[in-house]
Amino acid sequence: MFEWNDFITAFWAFFVLLPIVALIHQLGHYLMALLFGGRSEIILGRGKLLFKLGSIKVNRFYFLDSYCHYESLKVNTRLSHILVHAGGVLLNVASLLFVNTLIMIGWLPEAQFFYQFGYFTIYYMFFALFPVQYSEKHASDGKQIINIIRKYTPSNVFD
């Protein structure tokens, strides 16, 4: 049953934890693009720009959306584009394994915060890999990977 105390947990989950999971995901894309010689930027949220930290822009509604824009891969192959689109999920998996390992060896407590981190990470990975075309120019990572495998030109914007 949802109680008043659960609002604090929900606040942390939606305004702190979910944006952290989104940032980790977008960093995966960003790092893969850099690995293949591309330029990249991360944008967290919608609305007016709050601040910029290097290649990361954080907007007023930072918890609503996130994406990574990349261009000009020096290693411009089908595999490099697939790995850039898979990079978000790969870093999500790595972060989940890292946190779980720290819990198993006793360096982190078995706390609800880390349980929610795992839950949101799996949620984020599932919907990133679910192959869906959101709009004419915007598709999920899974759909982008399928398009690349089918020899379509990959998009430069992804979630």
Automatic annotation (TrEMBL):
<feature type="transmembrane region" description="Helical">
    <location>
        <begin position="113"/>
        <end position="134"/>
    </location>
</feature>
<feature type="transmembrane region" description="Helical">
    <location>
        <begin position="82"/>
        <end position="107"/>
    </location>
</feature>
<keyword id="KW-0812">Transmembrane</keyword>
<keyword id="KW-1133">Transmembrane helix</keyword>
<keyword id="KW-0472">Membrane</keyword>
<feature type="transmembrane region" description="Helical">
    <location>
        <begin position="12"/>
        <end position="36"/>
    </location>
</feature>
<protein>
    <recommendedName>
        <fullName>Integral inner membrane protein</fullName>
    </recommendedName>
</protein>
